[in-house]
Amino acid sequence: MSSTSASAAAKSTRKRGLAAFALIAVLALSACSQGGTDSGTAAPAGQAEAAAFPVSVKHALGEVTIEKEPQRIAVIGWTTPDIVAALGRVPVAVGKNSYGADDAGYFPWFREEVQKLGGQLPLALPSLERGEIDFEELLATDPDLILATYSGITAEDYTRLTSIAPTVAYPEKAWATPLEDNIDIVGKALGVPERAEKLQASLNETINSAAKEHPEFKGVTFAYGTVPSDDGTVLFNGPSDTRVQLLEQLGLVLAPGVSELSAANGDSSSFNVSLEEMSDLTPELFVTNVEDDAEWQQALSTSSIFAKWGPIDRGATVVTTDHAQTMSLSSPSPLSIPWGLSNFVGPLSDAVGKLK
Hints:
The protein is α/β, with parallel strands linked by helices. It folds into two domains: about 5-205, Nitrogenase molybdenum iron protein domain (Rossmann fold); about 215-355, Nitrogenase molybdenum iron protein domain (Rossmann fold, 3-Layer(aba) Sandwich), CATH 3.40.50.1980. It is built from 16 helices and 13 strands. Strands 10-8-12-13 form a four-stranded parallel beta sheet. β1 and β2 form a beta hairpin. α8 packs parallel to α16 (about 335-355) and α15 packs across α16 (about 335-355).
């Protein structure tokens, strides 16, 4: 569905009717923001490249034409707020991160980048992280572009969102946008495609440098998953998961059988398997994140199958307990990857060393 002048008119009419509500809502949201003066003021625009607009962007839920450089960008979902900031803009509204963030809902790398840009932190709204969107709350932030490029919005959500502002959804599957594609899409939407290419090149260089510094990673097979849940299943991440893709960029190889299990589960980015099915997988290395060390120890003591599974039995595991570190690679971005890799490649190298 394209954003048209008719939808813009509908937006204008609707906003006039809700003017009083919007003003009250904005004031209330600003007061509730944990950042005090973090009222969601955008960094200055005027950064678009020559002939960047109008631009049309196709995505899984339709196609949208963005007529001119957006001034007020709202973001739904993960990763994309970091991309927007890395490209030199500060959104007016983002999801309030519920895990690994500070009390106000911001990741440390995002907060640092906004400070570098000299902007004010955006409104952090819980409904924009994932789940049911509060459309009235979003409307009150007065966006002129909504980016949901790494999200789970539905076709119904998209229809409602386009009545507020031009909206860009994920290119193919919900919650499965490759980082490179996301950078490309956001760069086009913001009118900075050349800057997006340079950002991607810089990010690739960061990852490639880490891979070159650790040649021991090359060819090592791995699986990324969780500890067993109460129902005796383990959640594994498939080839479309961004943290799996990051490990592959470092030179590791997804273990045989994981892709097949993912395909059997509808090519989902994550899927549950029984402990018995898990035993059939033979990765050299296992990577996981847990709430704390006590959760990891409990998993080892309560499930002998899990504790005696190949990579765990030989100690070839990377177990992350720091929540911000977990999110830096679980939702990798141009900002989080440099931040997270600096703390990750050491433990990863130690785990690979257990294979000798």
